[in-house]
Specification:
Layout lengths: L11 E5 L9 E5 L4 H13 L4 H15 E4 L13 H5 L3 H11 L18 H14 L4 H11 L1
Antiparallel strand pairs: 1-2, 2-3
Helix pairs in contact: 1-2, 2-4, 5-6
Length: about 150
C-alpha cells in the first residue's frame, strides 16, 4: 500500500541541517507542490533569466505560499512570519533547499544526529542539474536522464 497522491490540505515536515559558517538549520512544515506547479515555477524562472531580483522574488513567493510553519526567529528569538520578504532574505542555499524540498525533488536532511539515513548520490546529481537549469545550462536534462535510469 502506498500514499503518494498529494491530497488537499496535506502537509509534510522537513529540515535542512546547518552548514558551519554558512547558515543555521531550519525546520519547517509545508504543503507539497503539485507537478504542474513545479513545471510552472520552472518555466517562469527560465523566462526571468538575467533578472536575479525577479527570479528570487518568484521563488520566494512560491516557497512562502507553501510553507505553513518554520523555525525562523528574529534577533530577540521572536518567531518571524512566513513572507515573501523574509524568504527572499534567506541565504541562497536555504531558499534553494526549501524550494527543492517543497517541489518534491529533494528530501529533507536527516536529523543532525544522523539516525535516519544517508545521502542519495543520484538525487544529489539531479538537484545539481536543476540548479544548472536555473543557471541556463543543459546539465539538468542529463541528470534527469541518469535519475530515470537508476
Amino acid at each position: 500500500m502506498s500514499r503518494n497522491v498529494i491530497q488537499d490540505g496535506y502537509t509534510k515536515s522537513a529540515r535542512i541541517n546547518a552548514v558551519p559558517r554558512l547558515h543555521e538549520s531550519i525546520e519547517f512544515t509545508f504543503r507539497p507542490m503539485l507537478p504542474e506547479d513545479v513545471e510552472d515555477l520552472s518555466a517562469k524562472v527560465r523566462k526571468l533569466q538575467g533578472d536575479a531580483k525577479k527570479m528570487t522574488l518568484m521563488i520566494a513567493d512560491a516557497v512562502s505560499k507553501h510553507l505553513t510553519e518554520w523555525s525562523e526567529v528574529d534577533a530577540t528569538d521572536k518567531p518571524l512570519p512566513i513572507s515573501v520578504n523574509n524568504c527572499r532574505r534567506l541565504p541562497y542555499p536555504l531558499l534553494g533547499g526549501l524550494r527543492y524540498i517543497i517541489e518534491g525533488i529533494r528530501a529533507g536532511d536527516a536529523p543532525e544526529d544522523g539516525k535516519d539515513g544517508g545521502n542519495d548520490d543520484e538525487l544529489d546529481k539531479y538537484v545539481d542539474g536543476l540548479e544548472a537549469e536555473v543557471n541556463g545550462t543543459s546539465e539538468m536534462r542529463e541528470a534527469e536522464k541518469n535519475l530515470g535510469e537508476g
